[in-house]
Automatic annotation (TrEMBL), chains A, D:
Belongs to the ABC-3 integral membrane protein family. The chain crosses the membrane at residues 12-33, 53-77, 89-112, 132-153, 173-203, 215-236, 242-262. InterPro entries: ABC_BtuC-like (IPR037294), ABC_TroCD (IPR001626). It is a multi-pass membrane protein. This is Zinc transport system permease protein. It is found in: Cell membrane; Membrane. The lineage of its organism: Bacteria, Bacillati, Bacillota, Clostridia, Eubacteriales. One of its GO terms (biological process) is response to zinc ion. GO terms for cellular component: ATP-binding cassette (ABC) transporter complex. It comes from the Bacteria. Keywords: Membrane, Transmembrane, Transmembrane helix, Transport.
TrEMBL record, chains C, E:
Keywords: ATP-binding, Nucleotide-binding, Transport. It comes from the Bacteria. CDD domains: ABC_Metallic_Cations (cd03235). One of its GO terms (molecular function) is ATP binding. Belongs to the ABC transporter superfamily. The lineage of its organism: Bacteria, Bacillati, Bacillota, Clostridia, Eubacteriales. Pfam families: ABC_tran. Residues 8-243 form the ABC transporter domain. This is Zinc transport system ATP-binding protein.
Length: 283, 267, 257, 283, 257
């Protein structure tokens, strides 16, 4: 480990991993319990439209991405609340529309455009300092918002109808959540790329959910697991000489299966058919 | 090649297609007024994620010759499809006879390989358009002179430099390095995302040799290159691996040579 | 004066869903501390009416005033839905579900000890206190319904809306539950939808019948003619066990205890 | 139109558009009603792992993609039925894992970078004849399977528990559906790229769902709409000289919003709050 | 001989969920054409037992035989769940939902005219025929429940499992429904879970109480002691309206009509 830590970039990558894990662990918990994993994946793609817009207008693409995902968050919330459409379909449509727009805008913009791959994949080894700061600020915002609206988030995520009868402005709370997801995705895309974001948003909270039925504990466990996966993955990739983002993801996936197996051994003789039904119970 | 001949007579010019900008320059120099050159990947676009719009395909369906670089992934996908659209298209692989390293496509960045490529271009053009063979030959000879001159000039740039090592993010200069006895340190391994060990290794080597300049290309994100430069206490310099005018190559290589000189001093 | 004592006032309410008219010209005026029972056939629109009062469905036409205002204040409504649609795998305990009834009462970000006390009290009232650390999905149908009742009670609302709250509850609980409602009724207005006419007629102060529109008399009289309008086969009904005292051809207070 | 149709490639692209619309309209209907849009998006990314494997083993990447998505379909079904995990999370995990694996495999395989983008984007203008045949065969398979198991698919998608008590082998039926989606995604990736697949899978059935509550009619309308969008988009892209895939997607998105607006005008004074609740009822 | 007439036979059945034991040592033997009513407190395990019989939950230990076989044949079971969890926006009509009960009867890929006739018959029996073209989500709670009953009937099963089928049904329907069950009982075995002890005791042939385990007498006698075991407060219960003839301290057939 030591010889690895002597490099600036390595220390910075570890810091990035931990900072990313905080945001992803907290936001990812909501993503997983509210079953909106799809949203995180789509927002990442929606961001591409913004990147295209950024190039087209000659502004920093990251602001385009911000504007686009924020707008899409608002759009998802709005259409969802006002137009009575299925959320997942709307998101699928926005996904496709944004990507298409991104392609056309990039095609139409003059001058050099950056490669799509770096947006999709990112590279945690070479996260610039400013992105670290971005991520840190995002962590603080997320923690603050969640700290302030913890109960409201939970109530709205669990039973939105009842929350409304109690007087919670459920639209606002849900939009706030969507905005948090949007911001996380954009900042993370810049720092670590799309796949790592999706992996860190979903895998640690899913593992955590197997061991607790408390949202706050899920968040804590997720942040810890995320940090283990990123730092461990980094270290592993160093010794195996593999791409670090991918190694982190594979480590997390391994973690998921190990945890599944452990739980499986514990409950081996328990019935499971019933539990599986829960999928259908939800649609 | 009867058919193509008649085409030339009818329309006056040969419709020639190439994939990247530097190739276009070569074809223009050899074909002169007798060719109309089109580039598949326009300026600024990255050959990695270029989607061909229908208008281009329409034009492609009327093309006469397509000179491929030979090892660009983009070409691997599209050439067969383009051939499907235009069955009369003559596709010429300009990388024939060039020893390829690791499937690296950037053969247009060494004057010596460019000489081979331009011979393929010349031969193809004159076999299609036999009538104007003399015209092509004349142009070709001039280009060869130019390239020889550039070859000598470039070789001269490095005289007196002992550690001929330079650091680049994207491994576009591999052939240049081979032909002029340079060592290219590339952060991307074979054009793929690097692992941390590789990055650490590059940093070690660069530090040992006093290298402080990281070359990046404008088609790729320079963000990552900046982080490496920071670790080395140096800076990022942008050099274009897809120059519109072939003569730019000399300027680019002189930047590389400058960087080497500075590194020697740092050592 | 009058305004002060009217809990819910509905004037010429129409509701349409997907172009189909569900409620037609509903008029209703409930005094504070009233206990209104609503009966009616399946599909009569009872659930729809409660949702309109709870602010969950916007009317097509007409006016609703809750506690004299045309918007619903936080904490005024406690609602027990007929069916609760939520994710049974959601990581939330019974206690946390009930606490969510205190959302608009809590000062600051967290629930206070008082909120917890109230939540626990309500859980005890529905005999689910020992289940408080269970994940919500790990309950039987009737247990879940009790928790939802506790959640609505935890709001300590001005108006309690109950949509068949005892549909899956066992008989032991049902009797206790109605006693509890009578007690709560001293402090809040209650609107109860139920098919259990026997029980309803015994505990409520006012009775209304719902079938597209609301047949309702401020005089608390439910006539035989009314029942005939609402139910497709009132004769059958009587034969199958509706206590006769619910049906008073000319006068008499229904549901008087 | 005529001058466009004079080109072989244009006629072929139109044929491709219609063939693709058939598969997407039929499979997409199930994807939309069963709310598994996410699956289609993920499978496209999962295919990337297979592409990496193809490169690594030196075989045609499309076979790797086939193997991978088919396997993942089976995996999704299996974990879902046996391990009591949330389907959307599993899919998110597979998505990330496959992408990561793809990256590492490509990194470890000899030679220069693989051409990822052509798999993500595809190009309907230059669909090779063999892909047309592939797509045609897929259409026939899909139509046959759906013809044979129409009632079973509907029953399982609607209420899997009841279907089971009646004696339907719900696992098998669900797996069959996942395989159909997997095959569609892989064939379509090759023919038209990922974004167009997602757009064609989701947008036409979503529009159709606004006008009918019959699955078979939804399929029919979807196929028609899909064909209109692809052929119309092609024609439009030709005259505006834009990337054709992206133009088709944007045309479809425009179609969705027009239909939404039309419906909105019709129902303007109707209440909509209630309908929106349905999301929570299923979430 | 004996095997031929046993509809459901359960021996030493244990069910655990998430490590918690839900059913303990349940034993049950139901003759063909029997009509078993199961009562019991909330969380007693009634739903779990029905799901085990329907093949939806695998037992932790023990043995179940349905119609003499240890696997369930298609078309043997008709199941009306306590709560149906499905997507209310699903594009399916009431008629199509009921037809899905015919899935394993249909020859070929499509439903025959006979299947349609049966589905329509069942819809008429639950008075939902006129709703047959409605999308399933556009129904009220009670209407939906009737459709689910029709769906189970459409199976024309050997064994009909009903989990509180009348919880949200109006009284008019309930009476008719029990008459219908009695009629159906001539051709099939019925197991009915309900909290409506009055109704149950009137129509069923055999009565059982469920609270973790099944208290059940093949002699069809429900003793006072039994009730005391099952319900937390049997005295209360009686006070609150359980007809006394259900409780027979020493002997007598319960539910005799
Ligand atoms: N998924 C689960 N995890 C843990 N415990 C569960 C789960 N599902 C049900 N239980 C418990 O199992 C017991 C029996 O549940 P069941 O649904 O069978 O009861 P029931 O007799 O049908 O009750 P009700 O009359 O309320 O419907 C209850 O105590 C319940 O809390
Ligand atoms: N989304 C919808 N679209 C169309 N019609 C609907 C919708 N929801 C309910 N309805 C119809 O509205 C009417 C009233 O429904 P509501 O749920 O209010 O009845 P209810 O009195 O509560 O009945 P129950 O006793 O069965 O619960 C019913 O005829 C029902 O079919
Ligand atoms: Mg109702
Ligand atoms: Mg139950
Ligand atoms: Zn390059």
């Amino acid at each position: 480990m030591m010889d690895f830590l002597q490099y600036d970039f390595a220390r910075q990558a570890m810091l990035a991993g931990v900072l990313v894990s905080i945001a992803c662990g907290v936001v990812g918990t909501y993503v997983v319990v509210k079953r909106i994993v799809f949203i995180s994946g789509s927002m990442a793609h929606i961001a591409y439209g913004g990147i295209g817009l950024g190039y087209f207008l000659g502004i920093n693409p990251i602001w385009g991405a911000f504007a686009f995902t924020a707008l899409s968050a608002w759009g998802i919330g709005f259409i969802n609340y006002r137009a009575g459409q299925k959320e997942d379909t709307i998101i699928g449509i926005m996904w496709a529309a944004s990507m298409a727009l991104g392609i056309i805008l990039i095609q139409m913009s003059a001058g050099y455009t950056a490669d799509l791959m770096s947006y999709l994949f990112g590279n945690i080894l070479t996260v610039p300092r400013e992105d670290l700061i971005f991520t840190g600020v995002l962590d603080i915002i997320i923690l603050l918002v969640v700290y302030c609206f913890f109960e409201e988030f939970r109530a709205v995520a669990f039973d939105e109808e009842f929350a409304r009868t109690v007087g919670v402005n459920t639209e606002k709370i849900y939009l706030l959540l969507l905005f948090l997801i949007a911001m996380t995705v954009v900042v993370m895309i810049r720092a670590v790329g799309v796949i790592l974001v999706i992996a860190l948003l979903t895998i640690p909270p899913t593992i955590a959910a197997q061991y607790t039925s408390s949202i706050s504990r899920m968040m804590l466990i997720s942040v810890l697991l995320g940090s283990i996966f990123t730092v461990g993955g980094l270290w592993l990739s160093f010794y195996l000489d593999l791409a670090s983002g991918a190694t982190m993801v594979l480590l997390a996936v391994a973690g998921f299966f190990i945890s599944l197996a452990l739980r499986g051994i514990k409950n081996r003789r328990l019935m499971v058919v019933e539990e599986r039904n829960n999928f259908y119970e939800n649609g | 090649f009867k058919k193509e001949e008649s085409k030339v007579r009818e329309e006056g010019v040969l419709k020639v297609w190439v994939t990247v900008l530097p190739q276009a320059d070569l074809v223009r120099k050899i074909g002169g007024e007798l060719v109309e050159v089109n580039v598949l990947v326009p300026k600024g676009a990255s050959p990695e994620d270029y989607e061909i719009p229908p208008g281009r395909l329409k034009e492609l369906s009327q093309a006469d010759v397509y000179f491929v670089v030979g090892h660009l992934p983009l070409e691997r996908v599209w050439i067969e499809r383009i051939k499907g659209i235009n069955k009369d298209l003559l596709v010429v692989d300009t990388s024939q006879g060039i020893e390829i390293i690791d499937d690296n496509p950037h053969i247009w960045l060494s004057p010596r390989l460019v000489a081979i490529q331009s011979r393929h271009i010349y031969e193809a053009l004159s076999s299609i358009d036999d009538e104007n063979k003399g015209y092509y030959e004349e142009n070709y000879a001039a280009l060869q002179d130019e390239l020889e001159k550039m070859d000598e000039d470039i070789a001269e740039l490095f005289t007196g430099i002992k550690t001929r090592m330079f650091l680049t993010y994207h491994p576009a200069w591999t052939y240049l390095a081979r032909d002029y006895g340079l060592t290219e340190l590339a952060i991307e391994e074979h054009g793929k995302e690097p692992g941390p060990k590789h990055v650490a290794h590059i940093i070690d080597v660069a530090k040992k040799n006093g290298i402080k300049i990281v070359f990046a290309s404008p088609q790729h994100s320079i963000k990552s290159a900046q982080v490496i430069a920071k670790e080395l206490g140096g800076e990022v310099k942008i050099i274009d691996p897809l120059p519109e005018d072939y003569r730019e190559l000399y300027e680019t290589v002189s930047l590389i040579a400058d960087a080497m000189r500075r590194a020697e001093k740092n050592k | 004066m009058e305004k002060e004592t009217t809990a819910v006032e509905i004037k010429n309410l129409w509701v349409k869903i997907n172009g189909r008219s569900i409620l037609e010209d509903v008029n209703l005026k409930i005094k504070e501390k009233d206990f209104l029972g609503i009966i009616g056939p399946n599909g009569g629109g009872k659930t729809t009416l409660l949702k309109v009062i709870a602010g969950l469905i916007k009317p097509y036409r007409g006016e609703i005033r809750v506690m004299g205002e045309d918007r619903i204040r936080p904490g005024y409504i406690g609602y027990v839905p007929q069916y609760a649609y939520f994710d049974y795998e959601f990581p939330i305990t019974v206690e946390e579900v009930v606490l969510s009834g205190r959302l608009k009462h809590k000062k600051g970000r967290r629930f206070s000890a008082a909120d917890y006390r109230i939540a626990h009290d309500k859980l005890k009232q529905v005999e689910m206190y020992s289940f408080r650390k269970r994940q919500i999905g790990e309950l039987s149908g009737g247990e879940r319904q009790r928790v939802l009742v506790a959640r609505a009670l935890a709001v300590e609302p001005k108006i309690l809306l109950l949509d068949e709250p005892t549909a899956s509850a066992d008989k032991g609980f049902v009797a206790d539950f109605y006693e509890l409602l009578c007690e709560l009724n001293r402090e809040m207005t209650i609107i109860l939808v139920s098919h259990d006419i026997t029980a309803v007629s015994r505990y409520v102060k006012t009775l209304a019948c719902m079938n597209r529109t609301l047949y309702y008399n401020e005089d608390k009289i439910l006539t035989y003619e009314l029942m005939e309008k609402v139910y497709p086969c009132p004769v059958d009904l009587i034969a199958h066990g509706i206590p006769h005292r619910v049906l008073m051809p000319h006068e008499g207070v229904v549901g008087e205890r």
